[in-house]
Structure formats: C-alpha cells, structure tokens
C-alpha cells in the first residue's frame, strides 16, 4: 500500500511492434536494407526496457525484426502462430497499398473485414491473436513483454482494447511501437499507438 492507503496495482505491459520493411518478390520475405536499419533502431529504442520475453510471428519479416532485440536482451523469441498475419497462407506478399492502386477487389474485401481471399475469416484471425495476448498476460503478470507482429494483428488487438469491432482503424508504420497495459482486474487499455520517433528518416523522394 502507498501512503494514504492507495493500492499499488501491478500492471502488465505488452509492447507491440510491427515488423520492419520487407523485401519484395517472395512469398515469405525477409527484411530490406532499410528494414534492417529499422529493426536495429527499434532494438536500440527498447534496450532500456525491462522486457521479460519476446513473442514473435513465425513469418520471416517478423522474426528478422525481432532478432536485434533478442540479441540485445539475450532472449530467445517465442514463436506463436497466432501472431502471424492474415496472409500467412498466401503464395505472394502484396502490400494493401498495391492492391488498392491496382483496383484489386481484395483491397475492398480486406477493408470490410473479409479475409476469405487469404484463406481465413476475421473471427478466427482475431481469436488466434487474442489467445496469444491472453497467454502473455497470464505468463508475465506484473511484468513487460514484447510482441513482434503485423499490421492486421495490431489492428485487431488494439481495436479490441478500445471496443472497435471492425478490422481496421489505423495504419501502423514499419517498426512503429504501440503499448497495451492490463491491470489485475483483467482490464486492458491502450497506452500508446504507433510511436515512431526512434525510426530513421524516410529516404528522399525520387
């Protein structure tokens, strides 16, 4: 108890990071040269935080983003399928911006929460991500853990915390940092969304 009788609540913090910029042209791409710079930058930004564990999507772009943080903290990443993006079964890696520019009907479907073109539905996608979050909160109660994942996963987890039922409500930057905080009563709130001051400046326009 604090002076005055105020109860000290042991909050649990989950630090969420979207993967760094990926290379183009492969089904499960690793990071581009800029992506490696972004991953190193986020590792430096988080180096002073008392992270007890690093959870990561199995997709290569996420694992390579987590690698510098894990090396800095001497932690092995905990790979969880539920942190994979909705395109996990796709035969190509295509950005949503590219689908929109091409007039591809998959863009409008995705914006409406229809993930069936990628072989999964929104309730399943959300449930899988939420299950991993529940595991993290139970395992690291009162502590702090890092999750390296994807834009879709970030949207469903942060959206659920603020009561948004639709698929998308913000566009996370590569290696943007967001934070969820849970209290001992089971309440989860959003502490920050898409922190980016740690990132290198964008390349000059061509």
Automatic annotation (TrEMBL):
Q: Which InterPro entries match?
A: His_Pase_superF_clade-1, His_PPase_superfam, PGM_Phosphatase
The protein's matches in Pfam families, at most eight in alphabetical order, are given as: His_Phos_1
Protein's name according to its UniProt entry: Histidine phosphatase family protein
Organism encoding this protein: Sporichthya brevicatena
């Amino acid at each position: 108890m604090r002076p005055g009788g105020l109860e000290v609540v042991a909050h649990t913090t989950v630090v969420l990071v979207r993967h760094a910029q990926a290379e183009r042209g492969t089904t499960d791409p690793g990071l581009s040269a800029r992506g490696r710079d972004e991953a190193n930058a986020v590792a430096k930004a988080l180096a002073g935080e008392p992270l007890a564990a690093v959870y990561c999507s199995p997709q290569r772009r996420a694992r390579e983003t987590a690698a510098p943080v894990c090396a800095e903290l001497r932690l092995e990443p905990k790979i969880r399928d539920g942190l994979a993006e909705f395109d996990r079964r796709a035969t190509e890696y295509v950005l949503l911006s590219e689908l929109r520019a091409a007039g591809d009907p998959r863009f409008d479907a995705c914006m409406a929460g229809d993930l069936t073109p990628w072989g999964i539905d929104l309730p399943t996608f959300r449930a899988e991500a939420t299950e991993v979050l529940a595991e993290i909160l139970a395992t690291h109660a009162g502590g702090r853990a890092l999750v390296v994942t994807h834009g879709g996963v970030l949207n469903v987890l942060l959206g659920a915390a603020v009561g948004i039922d639709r698929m998308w409500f913000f566009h996370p930057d590569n290696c943007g940092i967001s934070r969820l905080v849970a209290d001992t009563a089971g309440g989860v709130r959003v502490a920050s969304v898409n922190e980016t001051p740690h990132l290198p400046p964008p390349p000059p326009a061509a």
